[in-house]
Amino acid sequence: MAGGEGWRPPRPCEDYWWEWKHCRGLRHAFHHYYAHGELPACGRWRDDYEACRAWERGRTAAAQEALCESERARVMERQKYAPVWTLRKSPPPDWYLPLDQDKPN
């Protein structure tokens, strides 16, 4: 991903702008506060937008590296959480039997 004229940002600059606008919205802030107990941190989207615009203006290596690092951090953050359920390799041995719904407890 490093250096070269053929490199493009991972997303268009407008995507970073709209993500920042969405993050700052009241509805998103309320939902994020309800789900996570804290207000969302939207500064990273704004920084990414500014780095993307800087790269479009001057093709600077610092802006390119900032965008790459931010996207890597986003991917690592998304992969940090384990799934809620453990996935099984095969179905249970008695999967075809009827359920015991009529049985009293």
Walk me through what this model shows.
By secondary structure, the protein is mostly helical. The chain is about 55% helix and about 0% strand. It contains four helices and no strands. The longest helix is centred in the middle third of the chain and has 19 residues, at about 60-80. It is elongated, with a radius of gyration of 22 Å. The relative contact order is 0.12.
Present the secondary structure layout:
Layout (H helix, E strand, L loop, with lengths): L12 H12 L1 H11 L6 H16 L2 H19 L26
How much of the polypeptide forms β-strand, as a percent range? under 5%
The strand count comes to 0
Helix content: 55-70%
Largest pleated sheet:
none
Termini separation (Å)? 61 Å
Descriptive keywords:
single chain; 105 residues; mainly alpha; 4 helices; elongated
Structure summarized in a few sentences:
With 105 residues, this protein is mostly helical. 55% of the residues lie in helices and 0% in strands.
